[in-house]
Known about the structure:
This protein is of the alpha/beta class. Helices cover 37% and strands 14% of the residues. The protein has a single domain (10-207, 235-261), classed as Rossmann fold. α2 links the parallel β2 and β3. α1 (19-30) packs parallel to α2 (54-65), α3 (79-93) packs parallel to α4 (124-149) and α4 runs parallel beside α5 (173-193).
Amino acid sequence: MSDRMLAGKVALVTGSGRGLGRGFAEHLARLGCRVGIHGMRETGPAEYGEGTTLTQTALDIAQQFQTQTCRVIGDLTDQQQVQRIVSEVSEQLGPIDILVHNAGGDIAAAGGKPNPNDCVGIKLEDVRAVLDRNLLSTILVCQEVAKGMMPRKTGRILTLSSISAFRGIPNSSIYATAKAGVVEYTRCLAEQLRTYNINVNTLAPGDTRTGRFLGTRKVEESRLATDGTLDRVGMVDEVTRVVEFFAGPLGAFVTGQVLRVDGGSQIWPA
Length: 270
């Protein structure tokens, strides 16, 4: 199979200034895609030491993988901004063939993690912020991109859930609830778009070694191993390279599915 198997395709990766999003964007660029690099803020990549600016990230990816990129900034919980972002990517790179909706996070209305962050104590403004950032943004972005794919009867959509969606947890409970909602919305969208030849799936990562993950919690040294065990924190590329399956020829007849990439930390049906 060609290293540039997706040459000529256009991808939009939301939240791609750093972390998993940047990893998805880099892998799609490596496969030949032209890639829209999205972030909420121009300085987002610098927040956890994974870059400088969103503009520079887009330039670096274009140069490294000899492809075309564009940088787009906007709030994905605002429908008008979502429409603008999709329009800008389509105008600069062409109609979107692949969407990876990676943006999200367990982030409070004022930034940082909600505090308190349990089912009962979490503040109303933080409930709304977490639901909007994760579930509402998924709905708005998928709606807008799907509208462009449906007349062409082709497209691949990959949403991001989390293993948090599949078990009861006392903390980050609204985040878990939102990610469970992402799973169900993905399945509903997949059913609607079957006759349009558009594949819709969701990826549910476990703990992954991003700058934000390492910068916001203490991790046991044993879980930072890089090989020899699956009971560890995953590497970014171990998660992001899975996009090749969903966006490429091998995933042509796969839709409505959930794939956990977590080293087997959850071995039960999703």
